[in-house]
Structure formats: structure tokens, C-alpha cells
Design a protein that fits this description.
Elements lengths: L19 H10 L1 E3 L13 E9 L4 E4 L2 E4 L4 H6 L2 E2 L5 E2 L10 E9 L1 E3 L9 H16 L7 E5 L5 H6 L5 E6 L2 H13 L9 E6 L23 H8 L3 E5 L5 H15 L6 E7 L2 E4 L4 E4 L2 H7 E3 H6 L7 E6 L18 E9 L8
Parallel strand pairs: 9-10, 9-12, 10-11, 12-13, 16-17
Antiparallel strand pairs: 1-8, 2-7, 3-4, 5-6, 13-18, 14-15, 17-18
Length: about 350
């Protein structure tokens, strides 16, 4: 974007048993800034509403909760050939032109403390939007499903999914982030079909399981009902963007993923991340925070095949080639440090991916 300021990317302080409280205080005091702040005036504090524009492919139209390809019917052309008053060929035309873009209004912060980065919009979120839209434009795979967004933040990806899904759960941790996410759902109510259920729910990856209201005393309005938790178990699609930036958070994420994805049904996770490089005192080198820990959890398919027929439970992932995913989100630069992964969970004793 023109005029955008460079992102502030301080490395979170390493946590130890003796310094965890001090580290938490530093995280609260340190502020970071996303490079994604469309239309935001400089030096603004607090929240701001940006309108994110997404393009539609030619001949694709959103009709009653699904995207349909509106190809030109040449059989009508053969049937309706006629001449106008001047003797020229009169061709049948569409009754109305197709829209080629749509906007999503997102309330977000320009800066935040590290524990509240979910109040901002990040580049990996837009990459995941591109992927989700590409799936929705080119297939019916997401039509009528139950989907969960982990670390939903502003809720942008989940709200796009809600255009075709049966139910979408936007999950995150902390009352400020949850309230902001709920505000965004309200802002975009006109974009969401009435038959789709969208829930904003508290899900603390470090808390006890199953999630209860006790995990967040101030989050009563974002607590799970028993029926919602049962539907959560039936979710076939999980998505997450920019949730890999520290080792302890990555551990908590995969602990939660194992609980969600080991529950019988075939499930898939699409995870987008951005590798942010900082100098590490522990490693005495420049490293991408959290990325090595992430790769320690996820085998690629070659690694998995080399192991003994999947003798242990594991997450198996395939990195998606981003050059094959068109840009649908307008006015952002993907750069070179974004990755998108398709991840499944393979249960112990099975030789095929669940």
C-alpha cells in the first residue's frame, strides 16, 4: 500500500519459570503493528473500520448461499437469433450485469500489545481469504459444512466461509478480541445468509477441555452451550491464520488441534502463517519465531511415508503453492515469507491419513 509504515516486529521475550510474569508484563507493554491498515489515517489510536475489497471471477455470481458459474448459454443464442430495426444481428444479453467485487467491513486496531494481536488484520489472514474464496468459487467443497476458525481475531476468514457454510464458529481468547469479532459479524450481517449460523466463542488453547465458561469469567456471552460443543465435534474444516509466532503458543495450538482432529470424523486444517525473522539470543542467530516448533509437529508426506507405516499418531501436512492461488483480496502484497499448509491428523496404527 502507498504510504504504509513498516511493521514493528519485536521478538517476544523468552519465557522461563522465573521470568514468566515479567515476560507477560513486557508483552502487555510492547506494541506491534501490522502492515495491513487499509485507509487508516496516520497516528490514529484505538479501533478503525476498514473496507476490504474482494474480487469475483468473471461469470461467478453469489446466489442464495452459494457461488455459481453463470456461463453464457449458447443454446439460447441459436434459438433466439434475430435482427434489430437496422438489420443488425440482435444477441440475447444478461438481464443485469454481474458484480465483480464485494466489500467486507472490518473493525480493527492499527497497533496492539502482543496478547491482543487478534485486534489487527495480518497478511496471512488475507492469503487464507484468497484460498478460501478460490475454493468457494471453483468447487462446492465448503457448501453446507460446519467450520471452525481458530485464533479468529477480526473474524474475516470465517465470515467469508459463512457465505456458503451451514455453521461457522469464530473462536479466540480474551474479551476485547471476542467483542470486536462479534462487532464485525454485526457490521457484515447483510453479507451473511440468514440460514447460516455464525457463533463467536471463547476458546483458550491453554485452558481445560472441554471449554467452559469458567475459562473466562467475563466471557459469559461467548460461552459454549452443550449443543454447540457437540456440533464443534462434527466440524470438517478448521482454518487458522497467523497463529504461529511463539513456541509456547504453538504447543498449545497443536494440543488443541489433537483434541479436535482426533475425534473420528475426517477433518482438514488450512493454516496460513508468516515467517517473521528476529535475532534470538538463545540461538545466536536470526530465526523465525515459532516456525521450527511448528515444523516439529507437522510431517510432510515424504517424511510420513518413510516412517513405519504411520505407527504413531501424527499431523501430516502439504505446503500449498501460493502461485496457484489468485489474488482476490485487493491491494496487498504477499511478499516472500507467507506459507499456506493443508494439514490432516493420522491416527496411531493407521497407514493412511485420516
Amino acid at each position: 500500500m502507498e504510504g504504509e509504515t513498516p511493521p514493528i516486529q519485536p521478538s517476544p521475550a523468552p519465557e522461563t519459570a522465573s521470568s514468566s510474569e515479567e515476560s507477560e508484563q513486557e508483552d502487555e507493554n510492547d506494541h506491534v503493528m501490522s502492515e495491513i491498515h487499509l485507509g487508516c489515517p496516520p497516528k490514529i489510536s484505538g479501533s478503525f473500520v476498514s473496507h476490504f475489497t474482494f474480487s469475483l471471477p468473471p461469470d461467478v455470481e453469489y446466489i442464495e448461499g452459494k457461488y455459481e458459474y453463470e456461463g453464457f448459454d449458447d443454446s439460447k443464442l441459436r434459438q433466439e437469433v434475430s435482427l434489430d430495426d437496422d438489420g443488425d444481428l440482435a444477441l440475447p444479453r444478461r438481464k443485469k450485469p454481474l458484480k465483480d467485487t464485494f466489500d467486507v467491513a472490518i473493525q480493527h486496531n492499527i497497533t496492539s500489545s502482543i496478547p491482543k494481536v487478534g485486534l489487527q488484520v495480518w497478511r496471512a489472514e488475507l492469503v487464507l481469504c484468497d484460498f478460501v474464496l478460490h475454493k468457494m468459487y471453483t468447487s462446492s467443497e465448503f457448501n453446507g459444512i460446519v467450520a471452525v476458525e481458530l485464533g479468529a481475531g477480526t473474524g474475516l476468514v470465517g465470515m467469508l466461509l459463512a457465505r456458503v457454510a451451514k455453521s461457522v464458529y469464530l473462536t479466540d481468547h480474551g474479551i476485547d478480541i471476542l467483542e470486536n469479532c462479534a462487532s464485525n459479524v454485526h457490521l457484515n450481517s447483510a453479507l451473511l445468509p440468514s440460514k447460516t449460523s455464525v457463533y463467536v466463542r471463547e476458546l483458550d488453547w491453554k485452558a481445560s477441555w472441554p471449554p467452559t465458561q469458567d475459562n473466562c469469567a467475563s466471557c459469559e456471552s461467548f460461552a459454549w452451550s452443550r449443543s454447540e460443543f457437540e456440533e464443534l465435534k462434527k466440524a470438517s474444516l478448521l482454518v487458522a491464520a497467523d497463529v504461529i509466532y511463539s513456541d509456547d503458543l504453538t504447543d498449545a495450538l497443536f494440543h488443541t488441534l489433537e483434541r479436535l482432529m482426533s475425534n473420528g470424523l475426517k477433518k482438514v486444517l488450512y493454516l496460513a502463517l508468516e515467517k517473521r525473522y528476529n535475532f534470538s539470543i538463545n540461538d545466536l542467530n536470526v530465526v523465525a519465531n515459532g516456525y521450527s516448533r511448528f515444523r516439529s509437529y507437522v510431517r510432510d508426506e515424504i517424511e510420513n511415508n518413510e516412517l513405519q507405516n504411520g505407527s504413531a499418531s501424527a499431523f501430516v501436512g502439504t505446503r500449498i503453492d501460493l502461485t496457484e492461488i489468485p489474488h482476490y483480496a485487493v491491494n496487498y502484497n504477499r511478499g516472500h515469507d507467507l506459507e499456506l499448509w493443508k494439514i490432516k491428523y493420522m491416527k496411531e496404527g493407521k497407514s493412511s491419513i485420516v
